[in-house]
Amino acid sequence: MQQFQIRTDLALEATESVRKKDASHMRGITIEEYDAMEDVHISKVVILTKNAAKNMGKPMGTYITLEAPDLQESDEEYHREISEELAKQLKSVLPGIEEEKSILIVGLGNRDVTADALGPFTVDNLFVTRHIIREYGKQAYHATKMHQISALVPGVMAKTGMETAEIIKGVIKETVPDIVIVIDALAARNTKRLNRTVQITDTGIHPGSGVGNHRNAITKESLGIPVIAIGIPMVVDAGTIVSDALEKLAQEYAGGKASLDYFRNSADTQLHNMYVTAKNIDETTKRLSFTLSEAINIALDME
Amino acid sequence: MQQFQIRTDLALEATESVRKKDASHMRGITIEEYDAMEDVHISKVVILTKNAAKNMGKPMGTYITLEAPDLQESDEEYHREISEELAKQLKSVLPGIEEEKSILIVGLGNRDVTADALGPFTVDNLFVTRHIIREYGKQAYHATKMHQISALVPGVMAKTGMETAEIIKGVIKETVPDIVIVIDALAARNTKRLNRTVQITDTGIHPGSGVGNHRNAITKESLGIPVIAIGIPMVVDAGTIVSDALEKLAQEYAGGKASLDYFRNSADTQLHNMYVTAKNIDETTKRLSFTLSEAINIALDME
Amino acid sequence: MQQFQIRTDLALEATESVRKKDASHMRGITIEEYDAMEDVHISKVVILTKNAAKNMGKPMGTYITLEAPDLQESDEEYHREISEELAKQLKSVLPGIEEEKSILIVGLGNRDVTADALGPFTVDNLFVTRHIIREYGKQAYHATKMHQISALVPGVMAKTGMETAEIIKGVIKETVPDIVIVIDALAARNTKRLNRTVQITDTGIHPGSGVGNHRNAITKESLGIPVIAIGIPMVVDAGTIVSDALEKLAQEYAGGKASLDYFRNSADTQLHNMYVTAKNIDETTKRLSFTLSEAINIALDME
Amino acid sequence: MQQFQIRTDLALEATESVRKKDASHMRGITIEEYDAMEDVHISKVVILTKNAAKNMGKPMGTYITLEAPDLQESDEEYHREISEELAKQLKSVLPGIEEEKSILIVGLGNRDVTADALGPFTVDNLFVTRHIIREYGKQAYHATKMHQISALVPGVMAKTGMETAEIIKGVIKETVPDIVIVIDALAARNTKRLNRTVQITDTGIHPGSGVGNHRNAITKESLGIPVIAIGIPMVVDAGTIVSDALEKLAQEYAGGKASLDYFRNSADTQLHNMYVTAKNIDETTKRLSFTLSEAINIALDME
Lengths: 303, 303, 303, 303
Prior knowledge:
Number of strands of chain A: 9
Oligomer: homotetramer
Low-confidence stretches of chain A: 1-6
Strand content of chain A: 15-25%
């Protein structure tokens, strides 16, 4: 597993990869799968033990994946249904939201880089309430139960000179939310998952994840409050697709292994700083960010 | 003075207004003026006493104003010269920067509202160094002296649910800078100052200032470290220009006073939520934000 | 009437202005008014004679105005109803569309200037069909009747070096549509009409109209095919609101006339190249352009 | 050659590919190469015969390629030097510009799709003169010689319902320029050419070229006046990089040929509608479009 390092932010892809190599490594992992609606598949991977976490290269916790092949299409009604299903899944990992909570939603990534703008764009469409409730009370919304929602787009380290985690930590200290939700553009291993898969996890964000490679951990351990992460794969590393093609080949030509490694390395070098995206990524990022913001608004009864 | 409330963020306009009404109110205020270059006028207003602050409706401190009628033009070389002059003025109010400092630069306002985007756009072009110096040392820049520059675009309360001041406070607690510089779009009283005047002050930002009306104080008192504010008037309240025209008239027709007040009030009501801007404000905001970011980069030796 | 030149693109405002000065000038003009729904007022002004056109300062033809005070609000359902009402009104002036037509829709204005971007933004959301029908036939849409819709954003003369009318003429010669619909941001005289009024006319666009002041005529006479123009006031000339306040005053103080003219002129000079807009113009332009594109899509059965 | 179809808009890549397979196919082609400055390589490929055009899969004409590995860097001075070298090369293919000409510059592509926005963004920074010269004469510029420059961003067929070529033809008929320059984002075969290579050709644009696949010819034959095309590779087809890796492999494992074809096809299917781009493509597109607009401004003495 070391040799073929898994370049994916998706627990589901990590599972597939581990299972293929050594089924015994699946101990300590539970997987539950079902179809939520036609052509919408839900997988729930729970990593239960430290050993399983090590085998998977992912921290212990729950990873819910929604797969919808038509998520790239522009059908408004379909996206609305996806938002509702995502809201349901999101609620299942948000701790204690049957009571009023203060929730900070953070859009990670760089709004000026299309493939990395999912987080900022999602936050643009959220319904925030904290300032209104603090000034006028929840009666301003004619509601008896109302979460205090706040939202932040911290920017990326290359532009701020600060770790994203530093900015979030500071804002949490000052505004004291109960829960953090972070949204980030992910990298997948397989192009068939691009823009079609949503992952929701209670493990937060770990170094080296995401398109923009936000280095510091944004987790319950680092922030002191639960961190729910929502992500959608927006890119595949260009080197990965060559590696994958070559690996398939290796399974047929056992003798060619050394040579394949040579090609893989050369592909990696040349394809450094390149990635594979869908041709319509600009439009897709806008649509998917809207679907996510709707899902969050619904989950938090802000609709 | 109560009756004719001064709707301006510019100390210079407040000075003019006060002087016109009662020259005796100018006690406790020093004004120094000179031409920095052809058609570039510098005014330095210092409010020295609490009484003077009360008369002016502005806190005690130093207000440097650069007036340049051609600031709206697109001449690159001219803007470069303005940036250098602004850098000089900025250095004069930045405490202790002959030594290495950690400086947080904050772009206030809403990047999606043209008239309010000056701050965010300025921050987009800054040269940040904090993350590099912390990871590799200042030798990464082959420099013996190097400030640690960080930058933040906090967003506006209607989008974040948090006071801008809360976000800045949190980030300061976590990253501990020595100085904060805030950039904001201002409101002027007189259209002739629109996009042609830059104000630099060591008094920070006060409630009710700026286009976006950021309510909480962002000052040395509230944040615990020096706050330098840089602003350019991007709008005039629509009601103001009618008031001004009517006031001029009142000086000629003493008898018409009551009637004038009636018209002023009716203008105010109808022009609520309207403002006057230059026709080319989209282009102007881009150009002026670049001029400001250059000025800051030069002042902090980041060029 | 020469002295108080009417700076408005709205026939309705011209009517009001003329009526106020000399009711006899209303000969040759019919006005029909009714409420289409609650708080949505429709006015239909028809200028029937050359003499009436001269008195009004507007060409002969039909001007439909929809006034809706809540058009600035962000209620989606309300905007949908407005789109449907606009579609109905638009159909009433589109000649012969009970049969299949080829229709070119042109978004006038500059997409980089918020107040002038209504046309380009509207065109961004249109449903175009011409290329599909020409390649695959209307069966591609499973339809028995289908207009051929094409769309153009010609840009502004300062950026293209060409009159907008030249570009449209050329495209019409090459693609031979039956009808042209042009969308443009208008200038109103009264701030209460800003962003709340839609004008539909079969007279096209005339020199000096609109925010961007597109100089050449875009009319049936100049293009050889019917031209329907749709516009929404996005700005008021800053000089106008001062003039208006002064004019009201003049009605009370007959003696002050000369002095008022002096002030009006001085206001005009100083407010040259300034305009009054709503504070939320960036958001409003996006929303209203979407409402217009929906109206056009509905009117042309493209929904 | 049929089997390994060359997916590239660069004549230089076609040359390399042809040369590798059968050097005899290089008859009828002249290639001239030199270094214009350090690390800036110029290649001039001239396809002289119909037979050579057939072998190359490119029309007869001149193809100048500038290769600069540092073109991705943000060094302003370097980009200025590149602009000057490009201006020199551009002048060498612009017919008769020692005399005053009327020149239409067209930015092909979709400004809302980052990888396809090079053309529109380049046109945004051009210096246009036609409208001024026609109204005030060239004395408006205090010049004795002055080209009439006009510029157009026609948009893409999916948004306009019209072939790009139709729009250009119409505008040419109406405004009668002497020469057309078109700018387009290209597709390369090799990632090492991405954002580092500029191609200038007098053969215009041919069906199937470019990122956005503008189908109709934009050539001297179709438009009746000389067409100079300028392009920079912004994407590589994702399928291509897998094909290339596999092809290299095939040269070592002659026996594996059939299997390789299988993998290539499966890669093609899955990677359909995907492309490979540099990670910083948003920033790169802005910078390169500025470098191109400077080059054109210099070549046409508009600086």
